[in-house]
Design a protein that fits this description.
- The chain is mainly alpha-helical.
- The protein has 2 domains: about 55 residues, no CATH class; about 130 residues, Rossmann fold (3-Layer(aba) Sandwich), CATH 3.40.50.
- Helix content is about 45%, strand content about 10%.
- It has 9 helices and 7 strands.
- It has a 3-stranded parallel sheet. It has a two-stranded antiparallel sheet with strand order 1-2. The chain has a two-stranded parallel sheet with strand order 3-4.
- Strand 5, helix 7 and strand 6 form a beta-alpha-beta unit.
- Helix 2 crosses helix 3.
Length: about 200
């Protein structure tokens, strides 16, 4: 993909899956552009605006992962608090949640622009804990589909680190990271966790 003289391929983006999108764009701009700081900032902002427009349009029709909503509902019914973190900014993710009607399920919804640094930093997880009123990482299980998700969970020191194969990460990629479990899909979480006790 080439945008404004910045060229990035799928292999380049792979290791950045799950990261804050603004930071990813800035990384590639800094890597490839010969502009001064102000120019790189302007270029990064322009690319990000293009990205937001394209992603917002694309996600207007993308269906959720099969079984995800039922799994979230079952976890809530079993007494678990459920939170979500994302590498997308709030302006992108909130319309998706509104369209799906999922806001009601989450004790916290944390976007990458809610914190100073995205994954693999643990800050989104800590912010979700703060918002949900959870005081101990020993009570937290983080679930994600990218290596950066599992790295952030490890950096946070949470009790459980679950890789799911229903997203972009492969089993080989996720198994290389610290984890407690690797499961096929987020839909399998209720069976993994069982009733809260």
């Amino acid at each position: 993909m080439a945008r404004r003289y910045i060229t990035v391929g799928a292999a380049d983006i792979g290791p950045w899956r799950g990261a804050a999108k603004r930071a990813v764009i800035r990384h590639f701009v800094d890597q490839q552009s010969k502009l001064n700081e102000a120019g790189r900032q302007t270029l990064s902002s322009g690319i990000y605006r293009d990205f937001v427009e394209q992603v917002t349009e694309a996600y207007k029709t993308v269906p959720p992962i099969a079984g995800a909503e039922e799994a979230i509902r079952k976890l809530r019914e079993s007494g678990y608090l459920v939170a979500t973190t994302t590498g997308f900014d709030r302006e992108i993710v909130m319309p998706i949640f509104h369209r799906l009607g999922w806001e009601k399920y989450f004790a916290a919804m944390v976007a990458s622009d809610d914190v100073t640094e995205g994954r693999p930093a643990p800050y989104m997880l800590f912010h979700a804990m703060e918002t949900a009123g959870v005081k101990s990482v020993a009570e937290v299980m983080a679930v994600g589909d990218t290596p950066l998700d599992l790295q952030a969970a490890s950096n946070a020191g949470v009790h459980g680190m679950v890789g799911v194969l229903s997203g972009v990460g492969t089993a080989e990629q996720l198994r290389r990271e610290p984890h407690t479990d690797i499961i096929q899909s987020v839909a399998d979480l209720p069976a993994l966790l069982g009733p809260k006790g």
